[in-house]
Specification:
CATH class of the largest domain: Mainly Alpha
Number of domains: 6
Shape: globular
Helix content: 40-55%
Largest sheet: 6 strands, mixed
CATH superfamily of the largest domain: Hypothetical protein af1432
Number of helices: 30
CATH topology of the largest domain: Hypothetical protein af1432
Number of strands: 21
Length: 738
């Protein structure tokens, strides 16, 4: 056996300690015969040299042992689950088959390992782990819920050990997964201790400075904080005891992650977080006395401590829609510190913490539709009431399939209604993909556009430039979105002939350096014998008239109107005043200015109005509900929410060469209201080549001014140059991009 090669001396010592801990935690429930067989399988995997360390250099066997201890200590898992975990890395190495495991350990262990194998395959397909779709798909793929418990525990094991890794990219990725996938799953299952630790660890790696800032503040004040909570609680206990109330009380400091979220929401430092301290008073009341006794406690506390009426939450008189009942007050305790107090009864606490999925909805985790949440609530009940864990072994996923989840070849995840076809999927990706779809490959097998899709299918859409949408496609698709797109595409296809002809004329005129004038063109069209403009373009598109003939007639007309040509500068000035500042769609240019995903050029896209990206900004694409693509800056204020809620819609994007476009950029300027400062600002812009000012608005108050300036420019380098010049203007204090 190659133990000495596979385990370091430190790992040998760790394994011995973990083995003792596992036995003390309940490992003795595993028969000695099974223990020996597990060791033999691990030895076989090590000897075969198939076992590999992960990207962080962690030993998989040690990680399996650590995972088993979490499952035993925190979740009460027993024989089948522990054996499955101990064999998981060895099995995934390929050293032995699932049939061998079934023969030696039975169907139950083989079933759990098969679930882990399925999810490993799913994981390789999708990179959208931050999406709610992926969470639901993960749950539906895990026929045995113990698979999900193993995934959560294993992720916590890894997160605990990657602080000092040199692979920062992998640590960032795994931390994002912990924050967006595993912590919410742990929350749904009532595993609050694991959920809080996952959130805190992910914050430590993703927001290092913020995490340690909060931690240092909390460490510096731990003793005084504990003493403070005791000081705060003591007089309340005396009053409640004197009133003859039956209760128990909990006092705690919130998790670092929770404090960080409140700091961001309240826009304060740690010391300014209102409810850094949380006290929960849980009354043992009869049903008919619940409300009166809660209000009695409320009265006792508010008589002792000043309350903040803005932080008062009465979900006792009118419960939340999810059934949540409680009184929340924030009071000013000793030393002028704010403390949140929650008042409820045992029944209310049971509903909030345990029943009807109320608690996780209350904490902000979205409820899934159908039977998923009710089923998870059953799992949660078994965990929290310490029911016989053998009942857990019998739980299976029992969901009504009303949706299917399919993947692109690159692993992007899409959710579609059950009954959707290949053509639905093509239109879900993009309208142009749907319009040119000729079929697909599913599992290396060619299928038609009519093929119905099933969860887990990896679908490669086949397209042809010669393919165009047909009216009978409406009967093939299942989604209303695809039907709408087909109808729109057919209508646009008819109108497209006009657009193509118009583009041809504009391009030819541009190549010959002929200036386009709408009025001159209208006179030319009329002279050529066309009464309707669309008829002219149709004839041009069908080669009934030659484009060169049209341009010659146009130039002749232009010479006739030569006297008006000198007024072009005046017209430009008018356009400068009247130009529409709201239109940020890229226009002009002969080259593609954006590459979507890895190599898709020429796709229609719009620049997002929330962050106004320009050429040179780091950007990403977001597929909208209508199927279009909007380009956002990486630092867009909406980016975190989009990644968390709709990660599967995000696509890579990059600039791929200038197309001669100009972009509307709004700058916020602050400074002293000096004489002539506006003229100095506008003078700088007017002297810049290829830069236009769209609008300027200045407000002056008490000797200071602040204003917004909108300009049209080409890229970020020009933007930085402009900002630098504006800052040199006397009186200007700051210039920032809005």
């Amino acid at each position: 056996m190659n133990d000495d090669k596979f385990f370091t001396i430190e790992e040998h010592d760790t394994m011995l300690a973990l083995h003792k801990e596992l036995i003390n935690a309940g490992g003795s429930a595993i028969p000695e015969n099974d223990k020996e067989k597990v060791k033999e399988y691990i030895r076989k995997a090590i000897d075969s040299e198939c076992l590999k360390r992960d990207v962080f250099g962690l030993n998989p066997i040690v990680c399996d042992m650590q995972t088993a201890i979490i499952l035993s200590n925190e979740m009460g898992m027993t024989q089948a689950t522990i054996i499955s975990v101990m064999l998981s890395s060895a099995m995934q190495s390929g050293a032995f088959s699932l049939d061998e495991i079934r023969k030696d350990f039975g169907d139950e262990v083989a079933g759990i390992l098969h679930g882990l194998q399925s999810i490993a395959g799913l994981y390789e397909k999708s990179n959208a782990v931050e999406s709610e779709n992926f969470r639901q798909l993960l749950l539906s793929f895990a026929e045995d819920m113990r698979v999900i418990f193993i995934m959560i525990a294993n992720r916590l094991v890894v997160m605990r050990q990657i602080r000092d890794t040199d692979n920062d990219e992998a640590r960032q990725k795994i931390s994002m997964e912990a924050a967006y996938l595993y912590a919410p799953l742990a929350h749904k299952l009532g595993l609050y201790k694991l959920k809080s630790e996952l959130e805190d660890l992910s914050l430590k790696y993703l927001e290092h400075d913020a995490y340690y800032h909060i931690k240092e503040k909390l460490n510096a004040t731990k003793d005084s904080r504990d003493a403070y909570i005791a000081q705060f609680i003591k007089p309340i206990e005396e009053k409640l005891n004197a009133a003859g109330l039956k209760y128990h009380m909990k006092g705690r400091t919130k998790s670092i992650h929770s404090i960080y979220q409140k700091m961001k929401k309240q826009k304060v430092d740690v010391d300014g977080v209102y409810d850094l301290f949380a006290i929960r008073i849980i009354l043992d009341s009869k049903l008919e006395k619940e409300k009166s006794e809660c209000w009695q406690v409320f009265s006792i506390i508010t008589d002792m401590y000043q309350s903040n009426p803005k932080r008062m939450r009465d979900w006792l008189s009118v419960p939340k829609s999810n059934g949540y009942e409680s009184l929340h007050i924030t009071v000013l305790g000793p030393e002028k510190k704010w403390v949140e107090v929650q008042i409820r009864t045992e029944r209310m606490d049971d509903v909030a913490e345990h029943g009807l999925a109320a608690h996780w909805r209350y904490k902000g985790v979205k409820q899934q539709q159908g039977g998923l949440e009710d089923w998870l609530a059953g799992i949660r009940a078994a965990l929290e009431t310490n029911d016989d864990m053998q009942l857990m072994d019998q739980f299976k996923m029992d969901l009504v399939e009303d949706e299917v989840f399919v993947f692109t070849p690159k692993g992007d995840l899409f959710k579609l209604p059950k009954g959707s076809t290949v053509l639905d999927f093509a239109y879900a990706i993009h309208t142009k993909v749907g319009d040119h779809c000729t079929g697909a490959k599913i599992g290396n097998k060619n299928v038609t556009i009519r093929q119905e899709l099933h969860s887990g299918d990896q679908v490669e859409i086949l397209t042809s430039n010669n393919q165009t949408p047909k009216l009978d496609w409406i009967n093939i698709v299942h989604t209303s979105k695809a039907r709408t797109k087909i109808r729109t595409s057919i209508k646009e296809m008819n109108a497209g002939q006009v657009d193509i002809a118009k583009e041809l004329l504009e391009r030819k005129m541009k190549n010959r350096k002929v200036e386009m004038s709408e009025s001159t063109l209208m006179h030319t069209i009329k002279k050529l014998g066309f009464k309707v403009v669309t008829d002219f373009y149709k004839a041009l598109g069908n080669n009934e008239i030659d484009v060169n003939t049209v341009i010659e007639e146009y130039v002749a007309r232009q010479k006739f109107e030569r006297g008006e040509a000198e007024k072009s500068e005046v017209r430009k000035a008018e356009e400068f005043v009247m130009n529409d500042t709201k239109d940020t769609k890229v226009k002009g240019g002969n080259e593609d200015v954006m590459v979507i995903d890895k190599d898709l050029k020429g796709l229609d896209f719009q620049l997002a109005k929330c962050c106004h990206p320009i050429y040179g900004d780091d950007v990403f694409g977001f597929v909208t509900a209508s199927g279009g693509i909007k380009i956002h800056r990486m630092d867009c204020p909406n980016a975190p929410q989009m990644r968390e809620r709709f990660g599967y819609r995000i696509v890579k994007a990059r600039w791929a060469g200038k197309g001669g476009s100009k972009y509307a950029i709004t700058l916020h300027i602050v400074g002293n209201d000096d004489l002539g400062i506006v003229n100095n600002i506008t003078s700088i812009i007017s002297k810049e080549e290829k830069m236009l000012m769209r609008s300027i608005s200045i407000d002056s108050h008490d000797g200071l001014f602040s204003g917004h300036l909108t300009v049209m420019l080409e890229d970020t380098s020009r933007l930085q140059q402009l900002i630098k010049k504006l800052k040199t203007v006397r009186g200007v204090k700051n210039v920032t991009r809005s």
